[in-house]
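Morning run. Coffee first, then this:
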Amino acid sequence: MRAIAINVGANTNEPGFRGSVDGAGNFTYLPIPESKPTRESVPNYGDLDSMLEFDIPSAVHDIPVHLDPEFAGYPCCERYTYGDEHGVKAGPLSSLDVGDYLFFYATLTVEASTAWLPPEWGAFVIGHFRLARKPTSSDELGDARQSTFANNAHQKREQPDAQVLIEGDPEESALYDQAVPLSGPDAGTTANRLVTEYSSDSGKGPWWRRVLRYDAAGTERLLEAHRNGWTPSR
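And here it is:
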């Protein structure tokens, strides 16, 4: 068993703001904008604004969203699927196998000052998939609009373009209720032990933008942090 963790979600570049996290770890996941033409209607930020406890700026309400990863139970989602067209992520993800884990982390704006949260913003694990099958791709699926991935954002594009498509086991995949911090309490740019001790990453430089790799022990530590909560001393 092993895992990869990747950065997802809205940020200060796209669309110009982040989701948020409060002092109890409750958070809002927001997707990035859709950047390519789609062959069918997709949700926009206005649709999400009416379904989430988060005030999305009205200036972006008409902008369509790239709703990926897809978490069952999140607005406009059906299953646990993820796709990526960029080799920097698609390459490592293609090496995963059935039973491995894909963790998703996002940069979030911190709404409250607490001993365990960084000031202003930080990187947090917000969910995970346990792979239900080997990764596939848009090319392998062809134009299969009724497949497991039919509701994935990459498959809704005029030209489906995912180099890798991941399906999560519905019994062992989740969008979390409480975020798990990867940043230390002093600054969002400071990696905590879940990065520096349990992943293969050094935690130096812009680690919060990188693909993080975990062996079996590191994967179990991430799962434990999700199940039991995380504090800087643990």
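Helices lie at 45-49, 87-94, 138-141, 193-196, 216-228. Good start to the day.
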